[in-house]
Amino acid sequence: MRELHDAAKAGDLTRLTQLLDVPGCDVEERYVGQTAIHYASKGCHTEAVKLLLDRKADVNAKAITGWSAIHCAAERDNTEALALLLDRGADVNAQAAKKISVLHFAAFNGRMAATTLLVAKGADLHAKDEDGYTPLDDAKYRGREGCACVRDTSDRQWEAVAAFLERLLTLEAAERVAFAERAWEVCGR
């Protein structure tokens, strides 16, 4: 039912509710390899994400690329949806193709708020993708290469994410969480 995906992508709660109320509606149906929750997360429509979760959407459903809704929210720096997904059981260390974790996505895209929230929720700072890169490597090196592809990311954001991750690597686990939670408060989230 492509209409379900279109409604999720648009954040149209009225239409989404109507479609979900149709007998036999499959909240896990895929369109172009993704479920409706992927489209809602990519579109930064937190209320649509919530509605889909309330209707039993799989919080950890994987697209054909291995992305889950949490990857979509982290890439967009949609911390409201990210927090909701995590609270509903999303895997903070979910991996897409090539073992790319959610924290890799946030760091690569210079998403400071998402990076901070993920670390506070226990994301693995030392996770390595198939090429052996950590999220810090992505923030420092690969992120700059992709900078031109990301419209709203400045060099200062890349540097902030890299500095944040470098600082966290020197801390013990409990200190990391406290540091990340404090950074989260400072961000005003």
From TrEMBL:
The keyword Repeat applies. It comes from the Eukaryota. Keywords: ANK repeat, Repeat. Coiled coil: none annotated. It holds the Pfam family Ank_4. SMART domains: ANK (SM00248). ANK repeats lie at residues 32-64, 65-97, 98-130. This is Uncharacterized protein. It comes from Haptolina ericina.
